[in-house]
Amino acid sequence: MNIAILTYGSRGDVQPFLPLSVKLISRGHHVKLAAPSRFKNLVEGCGITFIPLPGDPADAIQKITAGGQNIFTMLREGLRHAFEVGGPVFRQSEEACKGADLIIHAFSHAVYGHTLAREMNIPDIHIQTFPMFAPTGDYPSVVLPDLENRSLNYFTHLAGIKIIWWLSLFGYEYIRRRAGFPKRKLFFPFDKDPLRPPTLILCAWSPSLLPPSAEWTANVHVTGFFFFDETESYQPPAELQNFLSAGDAPICVSFGSMVNRDAERIDRVIREAAARTNNRVVILSGWGGALKPSSNDLLYLESAPHDWLLPRCKMIVHHGGAGTVSAGLRAGIPQVVVPFMTDQPFWARRVHAAGVSPKPILVKRLTVERLTQAITEADQEAIHARAGALGQVVRKENGVERAVELIEARMRNWTK
Predict the structure, then answer these.
(1) Using CA atoms, how far apart are residues 104 and 86, in angstroms rounded to an integer?
(2) 408 has pLDDT over 60
(3) Same domain, 402 and 385
(4) Which of 98, 253, 271, 387 would bridge with 283, disulfide CB 3.0–4.6 Å?
């Protein structure tokens, strides 16, 4: 089976599709993964055929990050970047799908990927790393705070879906005119169509953290996280090995792809809170903090695989991205979450509700006092115990295996 996978965004938007692609390839399928060109080495290093998509989303992410939870800033900067690169991205995405028997799309390509599948008369599957296209009253849309009313919660999902559809129509028409594309009818992947089975939605998170809703239809499945393992191939630098062996297990600080203009202040808060709580710290600085001189209690690294590092740490302080949340859960360690934007506050509330994290601290409200209090609370024996127990559950789940089973079942049923 020839499978095209379409995604766009930060590493967190690309990485879940690496273990999925590798597993599909091991089952005899041919996979092409279309993603931003900056991830060429990462994708091809896994033996996956890579289709580079133009543009670098890092600048847009930085501007969205600076806007925090301002929905209008998210929309403005997201649309601005889409208008700049949309034409070439759509063209390359369509090229990636030529000859495909199945199209798998992430949030970035939900409408366009489904439209291509409709035109080609092939199935499509949507994989989401945060709940967006499956309405429920259990919780509101991911960009809103928790509400106390199930009907309101449900309405926010419906409203969010409608907004995405309208923006897709408006955005594509603008991009089409600018790029000189012919007119094209767009199809929304989650509308009911009596002539086509509903688009399969695979939710790539743990049911132990966010269970499936009783309101969901049969085409929605929670598979478990898609873990990308780098432990076997990773060779830790001597400075990291020496640091870990020189004292107690440290706190890991990782803000993923978040690039923040206030990085110096955040770095200072982290160092002072660690000193006040007598903790050693490994700071992964790829998020925008500058590499600084290390000491016996403080180590700066550009990056390190979470699956290797976190089991050697006592807790993690992070931004609340789904990938980092999953890595912390899998390692069985407490988490302190400092969300920046989009779905991060949603996941921060989920890990707090699971009892493995204190209340989240929005990045704009981060102070030495608040972080000190959160680290102290997260280091309590009860939270360590709950994190360890949840880690045992998550490690038994195999989200990639379950997803591949569902993908292959959809293809078998489609061809009947």
Answers:
(1) 19
(2) yes
(3) no
(4) 253
